[in-house]
Amino acid sequence: MNDHRSVGIVMIEDDEGHARLIEKNIRRAGILNDIRHFTDGTTALEYLFHAPDGPAKSGPALVLLDLNLPDMSGTDILARIKDENSPLRRAPVVVLTTTDDKVEIQRCYDLGCNVYITKPVNYENFAQAIRQLGLFLSVIQVPEVEG
Amino acid sequence: MQGSPTLAPAENPIGRILVAAMAIGFLALLVAAGAAGYVVRQTNRHSDWVIHTYRVEGVLIEVRRLAEQQETARRGYMLAGTPAFLNSFERAHAELAPQVDELRRLTADNPRQRAPMAMVEQRLADLDAAQRQTNALVQQGRGADALRQFRADSGLLRMQKLRHVFDAMAREERRLLALRDAEQVASRQTFSTVMAIAALLFLAVVAVSFLTIRRYTRDLHRSRSALAVLNATLEDQVKERTADLALANEEIQRFAYIVSHDLRSPLVNVMGFTAELSAATQPLAELIDRAESEAPQIVTEEARLAAREDLPEAIGFIRTSTAKMDRLINAILKLSREGRRVLAPEMIALDQLVEQITDAIRHVIDDRGVTVTIERPMPVVVSDRIALEQILSNLIENATKYRHPSRPAEVHVSAQETPGRVIVAVRDNGRGIDPRDHQRIFDLFRRSGQQDQPGEGIGLAHVRALAYRLGGTISVESQLGQGATFFLSLPPALSIAPPLQESA
């Protein structure tokens, strides 16, 4: 990523275990960026849009988003981020979820998600997928957030 | 169900009432006809009697007239002595004899007339004898003798007595006529009464029949309109029920899908952290190794066992269990996905399909040394190709799998069309299935017999779910050790209701 330190990774994932495994495997791919983890949609949105150190106020970010959250659907968060008037509309969003339903995938891309990844059930595949995502994250460009 | 008038119980009493009414009506008619016949006969007999009476009277008058004429002729002959009177006498006599015979014949049936009749004959004979005496005297020219005899004989009295007898006979006939008149009147009255009763009965029967028929017609009409309403709403009801069923089915599918998805999520953790643990044992084991060689005194037996045996063993069990759980969850997911797949019916020639399937698993069949025979011809069905292929592929693969150790394996596939169904039979000569397990083998994760073949107990559950989706059924006939035959019964043409909503 542009500047390995400046682009923050916001991970919204209700399963602590998954979150930990994702983080571990991303780190193993050599990504050193700051990773902020949220287990519910409300606090995640609060951080994304209103926190002083959040992406909307300070600097570029990349969002890792799970669709099954306890308080709201991940697609709602996706819609908020990609809304026309959202300061974060250009921020890359990677949907990382267990659902491989066609309709759901279509909907996410329609809403503007940048990458959709289904979590493989098999852990080896899962770990590999996350590591590949990490490698991918290390090369993509993340746009600046509009003021 | 809506309250519909039940036809069957109401029908019988009405039928019985109608039959009874008709029987009564018929009986009344019969009685009336009988009475009419009787009265007609009675009237005929009566008129016969009337005619008879008049004839008797007529003959009586004739006899009387002739007797009088004969007497008059005799008297004239006595007075005038001319042969014309004698002729007249003879003529009257000649005419009288048949009339008397006639009278006797006519009155023969009545015992009360017999005595007067005999008297009439007696008197006529006496009179005749007396008359002939005077006539003979006149003929001989002894007119005065004849006159004298006439006076002595009192011809007048004789005539009068004869007249009395005639009158008595006429009265008797009149009496009989009066009796018969009375009889006639009585029978007419009886007839009128019988007719009146019959008419009343008939009217009653008509009324009852009319009411019954009207009630029946009304019932019929009512039930027909109820039926019409039912008919009209039947489509809707069926649609409603189908929609309910489809919804319930969808609900179950969704449930299975969500459950299996949500089960996967923690499983990823278990597997993930097991992998982490496994990875972590590696440096630990190395550490123990190094410690053992460099400072053996710090390595306890427990630590060594934990690092070299307990940990890898525990991790191994966790891994195989989670792997199995993963397969089971995947199976459920597959079933639920299969249930959500939109079916696409098309024309399928079963023999071609079976051949494709056997070709596809040819290497398995050959490896196991199985002979597969396909009995032709096979019917053509309209169904979903993928689902049917999965069903038959599973059945044929199973048939080749559970072989009997003591005989070469043979699999026979046949199909036949019965009215409304197509039945595909997959028969093997394998080790068979205990009849107690015939239901169980179609349940998810359940298997039967010796567990010496790989498998999770998914295939037949999948087969049954697919068969149901195709509107079919699956059943098995088998005895332990004697092979098994699986029967797939399908509708000849699969019709699918349009999906209620897209799967979400």
TrEMBL record, chain A:
Key word Phosphoprotein present: yes
Record has ATP-binding as a keyword: no
Listed GO biological process terms: phosphorelay signal transduction system
Response regulatory domain: residues covered: 8-134
UniProt cross-references to InterPro entries, sorted A to Z: CheY-like_superfamily (IPR011006), Sig_transdc_resp-reg_receiver (IPR001789), TCS_response_regulator (IPR052893)
Keywords for the protein's UniProt record, in alphabetical order: Phosphoprotein
SUPFAM superfamilies xref list: CheY-like (SSF52172)
Residue numbers of 4-aspartylphosphate PTMs: D66
Coiled-coil ranges from the UniProt annotation: none
Protein name (record): CheY-like chemotaxis protein
Species of provenance: Sphingomonas yabuuchiae
From TrEMBL, chain B:
Domain Histidine kinase per the UniProt entry, residue ranges: 258-494
Catalytic EC class: transferase
Pfam families cross-referenced by the UniProt entry: CHASE3, HATPase_c
Reactions this protein catalyses: ATP + protein L-histidine = ADP + protein N-phospho-L-histidine
Keywords carried by this UniProt record: Kinase, Membrane, Phosphoprotein, Transferase, Transmembrane, Transmembrane helix
GO BP, one annotated term: osmosensory signaling via phosphorelay pathway
Name the record gives this protein: histidine kinase
Source species taxonomy: Bacteria, Pseudomonadati, Pseudomonadota, Alphaproteobacteria, Sphingomonadales
